[in-house]
Design goal:
This protein has one domain: Endonuclease III, domain 1. Helix content is 52%, strand content 2%. It is built from eleven helices and two strands; from the N terminus they run H-H-H-H-H-H-H-H-E-H-H-E-H. A two-stranded parallel ribbon has the order 1-2.
Length: 199
C-alpha cells in the first residue's frame, strides 16, 4: 500500500500504512514511540529484548504482552535480570503474559549479561549504539512502505558485532527493526506526519 492510499486518522494526520488499521496499540506505538531517538539504557535494553521476542511473530503480539514482559523481567533492569536463576526463568515459562519460548526466555538473561559487559566497556549502551551513526539518526526518505528494506549493511554489521559480544536473537532483520524502533533510523514514509516531526 502506498502512503497516498493511507487514509488520515480521526485527527486528520496521515500515518504510515502499517499503523492505519484502527488498532489503538499499533497507533499509539507508531504515533509516540516508533522512530523516536532513544537514549535511555534501560529502555534500549527493553526494546532489544522485545524485538528478539518478536522473532517469527507479529509485533502486535509483543506490544500486547509488553506489560507482562515488564512484570516478568523486573522492569527490564539488566542487573536484576542478569541475576535470575534457571529456576526463576523456568517459572516465567508458565507466565501467559509473555511468549513462553524457552530459548527466548533464557535469551533475556543472556542478553542482560552481554549488555552489562558492553556498558562496562563503553560507558553506556546508548554510546555504543549511536556511535554507529555518529550520534545522528539516519533519515532516508521513503515514499512507500515497499521502499523500506528488511535489512541493511548497517544492521548486518551491528548484528555481527552483537553476536560476537554474546548477544542472541539479534539477527540482521531483528537489528534493523530495532534501529527503526529506537530512532537510529527514521523509516516513517515521507507522507506520514511523524516523518517531518522527527526529521
Amino acid at each position: 500500500m502506498t502512503p497516498a492510499a493511507t487514509p488520515p486518522s480521526d485527527d486528520g494526520k496521515t500515518p504510515c500504512s502499517w499503523a492505519s488499521g484502527g488498532d489503538p496499540d499499533y497507533e499509539a506505538y507508531h504515533d509516540t514511540e516508533w522512530g523516536v531517538p532513544l537514549h535511555d539504557d534501560r529502555a534500549l535494553f527493553e526494546l532489544l529484548c522485545l524485538e528478539g521476542a518478536q522473532a517469527g511473530l507479529a509485533w502486535i503480539t509483543i506490544l500486547r504482552k509488553r506489560e507482562g514482559y515488564r512484570r516478568a523481567f523486573l522492569g527490564f533492569d539488566p542487573v536484576r535480570v542478569s541475576e535470575l536463576s534457571d529456576a526463576e526463568l523456568d517459572e516465567r515459562m508458565l507466565d501467559p503474559g509473555i511468549v513462553r519460548n524457552r530459548l527466548k526466555v533464557y535469551a533475556v538473561r543472556k542478553n542482560a549479561r552481554a549488555f552489562l559487559e558492553l556498558q562496562g566497556e563503553r560507558g553506556s549502551f546508548d554510546s555504543y549504539l549511536w556511535d554507529w551513526v555518529e550520534g545522528q539518526p539516519l533519515v532516508q526518505p521513503r515514499r512507500a512502505m515497499a521502499d523500506v528494506p528488511a535489512v541493511t549493511p548497517l544492521a548486518e554489521a551491528i548484528s555481527k558485532d552483537l553476536k560476537r559480544r554474546g548477544f542472541t536473537f539479534v539477527g540482521p532483520t531483528i537489528v534493523y527493526a530495532y534501529l527503526q524502533s529506537t530512532g537510529v533510523v527514521n523509516d516513517h514514509v515521507v507522507s506520514c506526519f511523524r516523518y517531518a516531526e522527527l526529521a
